[in-house]
Amino acid sequence: MVDFDHLDAYDRVLFLRVYSIHEENNGSLREALRMAEDAWKRVQGIPEFPLLAPSILAQLAVLHSRIGRAQRALWFLERGLQSTESLENQKVRLRRAAVLNALGRHLEADSELESLKRSGLPPTFDAELNLVRGDINWARGDTTEAVRSYTNAVKRSMAHQVTYEEFVSRLALTALLPIHEDSVGASANLGRAQSLIFDKSDRLAYRFREIGLRLRLGEYTPEHALNEYMALDGEFGQMGLLQEQGFVKLHTAELLLKLDPKRCKAVLDQLQSLCVTLQNHLFLAKEWLLLPDLRREAKRTHPELLGEQSDILEIHSLGDESLYYAGERVTIPLRRLVEVVAYFLEFKAVSLTRLLSDVFPDEKPRSAKSYFHQCRHQLKEYLPSVQIEYDREARLYRLRSQIDIVWDVAEVRAGRRQGSFGLFLPSSGNDWALMLDHGLDRFRDASRDAA
Fold this sequence. Notes:
Blueprint: H1 9-25, H2 29-43, H3 49-67, H4 70-81, H5 86-102, H6 106-118, H7 126-139, H8 143-160, H9 163-176, H10 183-194, H11 200-216, H12 222-239, H13 242-259, H14 261-278, H15 285-288, H16 292-301, H17 303-306, E1 312-316, E2 322-325, E3 328-330, H18 337-347, E4 349-350, H19 352-359, H20 365-382, E5 386-391, E6 396-401, E7 404-407, H21 408-413, H22 431-439, H23 441-450
Parallel strand pairs: 1-7
Antiparallel strand pairs: 1-2, 2-3, 4-6, 5-6
Helix pairs in contact: 1-2, 1-3, 2-3, 3-4, 4-5, 5-6, 5-7, 6-7, 7-8, 7-9, 8-9, 9-10, 9-11, 10-11, 11-12, 12-13, 13-14
């Protein structure tokens, strides 16, 4: 037994982090989160902060993501990007892509994956990269490409002996293959997934897909499947897995649509409340594709649940400095606003001191601070779905978006924009902008060589 009170500050933080992982593996996600949050509070200000912070941030991001609080997970991941390098940084970026997808920001997630792939991601990441790509394709409605990606993820998982990615990919194939008239393949994947179960959350995830497949094959009656789903709903809720609980509720509502329409509406009401709790109306995107009848009904009675979001914010910063929303140019009367937005897209979470030094180096601090807060106000006024928010605990600012953002620099890095392009932020002579532009020279050189 460890005597916590007699540990020094460093060992207390280390103990809490390890204990958090232990509790997560035992299925106690709420306790795991409490321990990780305690570790994060205690690590502030101690000399070993740079050493310990990245692993605690990663643990907090994983836990918030598993619980379904994607916005909070994204905050920890973007904070982690600032304190990691090389391989660890690539891990954070890959996890960030998965969270962006859960928030419905599929284009950004896909762009991050392409950028990672072109940066020379180690082969050991192939399984996870294909898994996330499968999730993106599924959420966007391309089940054929999703099946291909998940199949590749299975192959890479087996090659590198990573069981979790294989387990999740096989469950995804269990759900998707029947759509393509391959129930035999679905059953085979479900059988293999059963042998890969590691903990309670795995067991529940397996059971969820098993019920759906057995119902589709006629091995379960709708009434029996309904009872199984309701029991599973309670188990996911007890573990704090709110996102998975939402998936189960959605499939429960599908059965109730024919068995008991009044109860179906009540379950959809519960789902709507859950979306508000999670601050995310888009996490159900994949499951909706499996339930076309319920989708049609929900479009009539609960349209907010569908979370349909087709509008995109485009950030032009190469040879031009402008914003476009839903194809229309957004005119905001602040000349430096595009640079401010681009700065957050590049650095994610930053302190006010660093931002003012990088973006307004020649301005008096008071004037620069005032201009920055004008940018925040104007952005919120013209584009309510995109805000620069402040985290009081960390004393950091970050860009928070409820819609997909397409940034021309990210498109170049992902290899989706080729040919010649102009200078980055041509009206800015700031060092950070010049360094970023210099980093794009290799893409300019590649375009010239190709020509």
